[in-house]
Amino acid sequence: MSVxxxxxxxxxxxxxxxxxxxxxxxxxxxxxxVIYGGGEDPVSVTFDHDKLIHSLxxxxxxxxxxxxxxxxxxxxxxxxxLQRHPCKPTVxxxxxxxVREDTAINVHVPLHFLNEDTCPGVKLEGGVISHxxxxxxxxxxxxxxxxxxxxxxxxxxxxxxxxxSDIKVPDGVTIVELAYGEGHDHVVxxxxxxxxxxxxxxITEEVVEGEAAExxxxxxxxxxxxxxxxxxxxx
Length: 235
Description:
Strand content: 35-45%
Structural class: mainly beta
CATH architecture of the largest domain: Beta Complex
Number of strands: 13
Number of domains: 2
Helix content: 10-25%
Number of helices: 4
Shape: elongated
Distance between the termini: 99 Å
CATH class of the largest domain: Mainly Beta
């Protein structure tokens, strides 16, 4: 993997557990979190909010094996849950799941779409690309976890589509949804004809002139330059 994420965490003591304690920690710039799984007991920790927020801005963080240093012990984990403030750009809580090299994990990874502008359905036929799915859940060993999966749309024509079963995944990786049967082979991306709302109106000279005419204020009777305004003054 091209990016490494190493996080430093501090253990929480008994006085730092509970809702009230979590609020106090957040006011101090810390993020309460829990590390669990991997055959070990859950551990309550905190992260520095300002340091962690930069990692959260990177797409790879959400589908990456993280290295977490806690009290001198290094642990490998993946992000399993993230609670954000509904109005402020702050993180309220995190859940991290420990991983073991010999145990498969389920992770949601983003899809990266290739050749959308040059596929026949768009470039030659004037179609529009629609993304039905932008991330998928996969299962694999930690060593095989990809940061993203590419979806090549190079051959798509109008009314063509790609399903989950059409996506090429790396060796050792399976798409979880496909394990539930044919009815779960969902459409991932498709090309369709532009709908009326998606077609930009063609601006012609006649349209522009018509709009200008409609925009003019109506003339009052007798306002034409060529009209004799002196009529009625012959007394």
